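#structure-requests
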Amino acid sequence: MIAGIKDILIGLTSEYETSEHSPALLYGLSLAQHSQAHVTTQSASVRVRVKSAWFAQIAANLVGSENFRRKAMAEALAKQARKEASATGIDCTVQTPHLGYQELLASFTTQARLHDLTILDSESHALNLDRGLIEELLIHSGRPLVVVPRHCDTFHCHRAIVAWDGSAKAARATNDALPLLRRAEAVTVLSVTGEKNLPGEAAGANLAVHLNRHGVPAMAESLTAHDSDVARTLRDAAHEKKADLIVMGAFVHWRVRELTLGGVTQSLLKKCDVPLFMAY
């Protein structure tokens, strides 16, 4: 059993038709089985609102129909979540918030603070909600986030990669991931050089020693970034080592007076075949 994880939040959006399965849902339920955790699923839908009173009168029927459609799809996903949880014997609470965009982000973030970790499906180009939700949870929830790609529907952590750059964010992610890393057969502390060099005291070998003291079978490795592309280097290493999980700190920077996820984080969210365990 995985110790230290007792509450898991799974975020569902209407990207998936009811005939499909959300990888985040199945992955989260699988993790809950391993940890005997309670699961809360938020099957969310964004309420359409029209600010112009004049236009609202004209479009009232259209807006009402669209909100009904969105809410119905979210409720269908909630029904599926209940069914999947019942089939696996998981204690599951299902919520179906139908709120404006900003209110919905706030609802997810509030719930995330009350759970050990949150699980989401990987970024969708079809929905703006997913990108905003990932950023909001990473920056403001104070809790780790697991982002699951489409083909991963079962929790595994036989082999893991810890992306280590000596930063506070990487240290936070590594510490938050300890319950999962202790389950692994092999953990690679991977430092990608070429973008920045680590001081000696922050070297990956020292983190590997620390992890071993926590019962994690870790070894350190250093790679040079391919064409200065850290994200590609991490993806290639995960594929070569057949990793089940990448643990990393999420970076943000200011752009046009708002916080935006950093380049490596964004690149991995857009393209990665391995679940990402991230903290900020």
